[in-house]
From TrEMBL:
Protein name: Long-chain acyl-CoA synthetase
Keyword ATP-binding included in the entry's annotation: yes
Organism whose genome encodes this protein: Soonwooa buanensis
Domain of life: Bacteria
Keywords: ATP-binding, Nucleotide-binding
Length: 590
């Protein structure tokens, strides 16, 4: 069947790829399976229930979950197939942002996952005149439950109305409003149509590798990146479109346990997660001691020299049997690929995972582009690049190096904000990504930096902080780093050490650097050791880019503290404000 609207994916799956575990969520220690048929039947009940509540095409419905779960998928399908608009919102934003988003979108009803979010909504609700009710997926005392909507829709006498509405939905109709969390300023509502998302799903589909020896009934994906983010959501639609079962992880903390249980063939990741997986593997390999650690470090040296185009050496085959095989088993043993987005992945790490038989396909995009602009594939891959642009996306590099794009997946504008919409496009209709990059002779796109994040020192030199930061994070000592120095005489950096690694290092060196982040951040020995890492990096940088001073921050940067976005990007303004005393110290003003 032809797919034109996002809800068509599920109906196609029922016709071509029916299975008993289309969606799977862990509840009370057990994986609860929902079949393709049950998925659609429940979504139809939601559609009928919402119609009985008075929901009409174009009405907005909020979705907020702490973790991905089956109910989110059912709601998404039930909302979209009657022409209503879903507004997925991150669970970690401030109450002030919730009030702004809910009022801006004029949300009628909101569905939340748990008691904490329900309580948060009780604070928000009096401030939002359009909000008629809040429903909870979990059973919470005193809270209306989403099952009430299922019960409302139990009678299928109005199913014809659902189908009539569904038939009338056009591909250019808005299906979702996604508010960009952003690193500064008020959230902006990105309007995405069915066509935007469907064209991106179909354009990206061929880049996802297949193993034709595996029956679709056995194919599984593990989903844990926030599904309210367009990256995870678009890939979710790819999985539905291909009959791949979606297992929803309990949380990022339990990902190691869940991956061994679900044994997925596909996973989406962000670079920070790949870094954490590698750090865990490295710490385990080097702490074994004796001959085991020597073999592990030897295998790492083999991986670092791996050439994707050359046949595997005899040494590589031995390293695979002794070491890399265990890496794959630790990730469930079935992975065909990891798909990485949201930020740049270091070429060194990418090379090592490729060498270990865990291919990472790095891609690039934004919420406004639904999201994929380009992505590597097994057939066309170049480490350090974000792949070749999709066939239905036109990429043009502007005179100042900014990547601009045009195509069916590019959004129509920001909700109720014509001025920002106009600013987002060039005169000839290309969307301005805000990223700097270039395309090589073979058509591979490379991202250099965020245009908005580049800054100029008082000496007039431009600094691209992300490039320096990505290189620096290859160090085991550095968990997070933010290069600063706009309008200052030189660039410097605020560094959040990997406190666990630092403690292990201090133990081996018989140093007392303290036990808490606050104590370790004040340790001159740790600061000096991390500065050595920066000096090694400085040799690869231009003189004007070199980091000559650092300060260690006394706490872990997190989403909850408002220092990272939900996709683990730096919130630069917030970080600078949080550590303003250390910033002033970098320039001898404290």
């Amino acid at each position: 069947m032809s797919v034109k609207r996002t809800f068509d994916f599920a109906h196609k799956a029922l016709n071509q790829y029916p299975k008993n575990d289309a969606l799977v969520t862990k509840k009370n220690g057990e994986w609860k399976k929902t079949s393709t048929l049950e998925f659609i039947n429940q979504a139809n009940k939601i559609s009928r229930g919402l119609l009985k509540l008075g929901i009409k095409p174009g009405d907005k419905i909020g979705l907020i979950t702490s973790n991905n779960r089956t109910e989110w998928s059912i709601m998404d399908l039930g909302i979209s197939q009657i022409g209503a608009i879903s507004v997925p919102v991150y669970p970690t934003i401030s109450e002030e942002d919730y009030v702004y988003i809910f009022n801006n979108a004029e949300i009628k009803y909101c569905f939340v996952s748990d008691v904490d979010l329900y309580k948060k909504m009780q604070v928000v609700k009096p401030e939002v005149s359009s909000l008629a009710g809040v429903f909870c997926f979990d059973d919470v005392d005193g809270a209306p439950n989403w099952k009430e909507i299922l019960d409302l829709g139990e009678d299928d006498a109005t199913q014809q109305e659902v189908e009539d509405l569904s038939k009338g939905i056009q591909e250019d109709d808005v299906v979702t409003l996604i508010y960009t969390s952003g690193t500064t300023g008020r959230p902006k509502g990105v309007m995405l149509t069915h066509k935007n998302i469907v064209s991106n799903v179909l354009g990206s589909d061929s880049r996802i590798p297949r193993d034709k020896s595996i029956n679709y009934k056995d194919l599984r994906a593990l989903s844990f990146l926030p599904i309210c983010h367009i990256f995870e959501r678009m890939v979710y639609y790819i999985f539905v479109n291909n009959g791949i079962s979606i297992y929803y992880a309990e949380s990022i903390e339990k990902i190691g346990e869940n991956v061994k249980e679900a044994k997925p063939h596909y996973m989406t990741v962000v670079p920070r997660l790949v870094e954490k997986v590698y750090d865990s593997i490295y710490n385990k390999g080097t702490s074994a001691g004796g001959i085991k650690s020597k073999i592990f470090l030897w295998s790492i040296s083999i991986a670092e020299k791996y050439n994707l185009q050359a046949p595997k050496s005899f040494a590589h085959i031995i390293a695979d049997k002794l070491v890399f095989k265990k890496w794959r088993e630790g990730l469930g043993g079935n992975l065909i690929t990891l798909v990485s987005g949201s930020a740049a992945l270091s070429s060194r790490l990418n090379r090592m995972f490729q060498a270990a038989g865990i291919p990472v396909l790095e891609g690039y995009g934004l919420t406004e582009t639904s999201p994929v602009i380009s992505v590597n594939s097994f057939e066309k891959m170049r480490l350090g690049s974000v792949g070749v642009p999709l066939s239905n996306v036109d990429v043009k590099i502007a005179a100042d190096g900014e990547i601009t794009v045009k195509g069916p997946s590019i959004f129509g504008g920001y909700y109720k904000d014509d001025e920002k919409t106009q600013e987002a496009f060039t005169e000839d209709g290309y969307f301005k990504t805000g990223d700097i990059g270039h395309i090589d002779d073979d058509g591979f796109l490379f991202i250099t930096d965020r245009k908005k994040e580049m800054f100029k020192t008082s000496g007039g030199k431009f600094i691209a902080p992300q490039v320096i930061e990505n290189h620096a994070k290859a160090s085991k000592f550095i968990e997070q780093i933010m290069v600063v120095g706009e309008g200052e005489k030189m660039p410097t950096a605020l560094v959040q050490p990997d406190f666990n690694f630092a403690q292990n290092w201090a133990k081996i060196k018989n140093l007392n650097i303290g036990t808490t982040p606050e104590e370790m951040a004040k340790s001159p020995e740790l600061k000096e050791r991390i500065m050595q890492e920066m000096e090694t990096l400085n040799k690869k940088l231009g003189k004007w880019e070199q980091i000559k001073k650092i300060e260690l921050t006394p706490k872990v940067w997190s989403i909850d503290d408002g220092l990272l976005t939900p996709t683990l990007k730096l919130k630069r303004k917030a970080i600078k404000e949080a550590f303003i005393d250390l910033y002033e110290k970098l320039y001898d003003r404290k």
